[in-house]
Specification:
Layout lengths: L1 E4 L3 E3 L5 E8 L8 E6 L6 E6 L6 E3 L7 E6 L4 E6 L8 E9 L2 E4 L3 E5 L2
Parallel strand pairs: 2-11
Antiparallel strand pairs: 1-3, 3-8, 4-5, 4-9, 5-6, 7-8, 9-10, 9-11
Length: about 120
């Protein structure tokens, strides 16, 4: 199983950024996918989940209305569109999949929101 996140970056408050995660090594279209984040000095926090065919999504309250999770099962990719970014969104973002064999994580990508 491999999960590879796209590069994050530095964004000004109020800006937007799109993260992608390319998956391989498992049946992508059969698996819900998740995004997590970990801010400095804090525990890793769940951010969003999308069902296996993308029909259902869930978000942590702090990102509702600003972040959108989506997937392209033809490309084995899950994305996180982040709008109206705030300094408190600064974190390392990870994509995640839970399979019968275990929980798998990408390498993480840094998102910094600062002026």
């Amino acid at each position: 199983v491999q999960l590879v996140e796209s590069e994050g970056g530095l964004v000004q408050p109020g800006g937007s950024l799109r993260l992608s995660c390319e998956a391989s090594g498992f049946t992508f279209s059969g698996s819900p996918m998740r995004w997590y984040r970990q801010a400095p000095g804090k525990e890793r926090e769940w951010v969003a989940t999308i069902s296996n065919i993308g029909a259902t999504t869930f978000y942590v309250d702090s990102v509702k209305g600003r972040f959108t999770i989506s997937r392209d099962n033809a490309k084995n990719t899950v994305s996180l569109q982040m709008n109206s970014l705030k300094p408190e969104d600064t974190a390392v973002y990870y994509c995640n999949v839970v399979l019968y064999s275990g929980s798998y994580w990408g390498q993480g990508t840094q998102v910094t929101v600062s002026s």
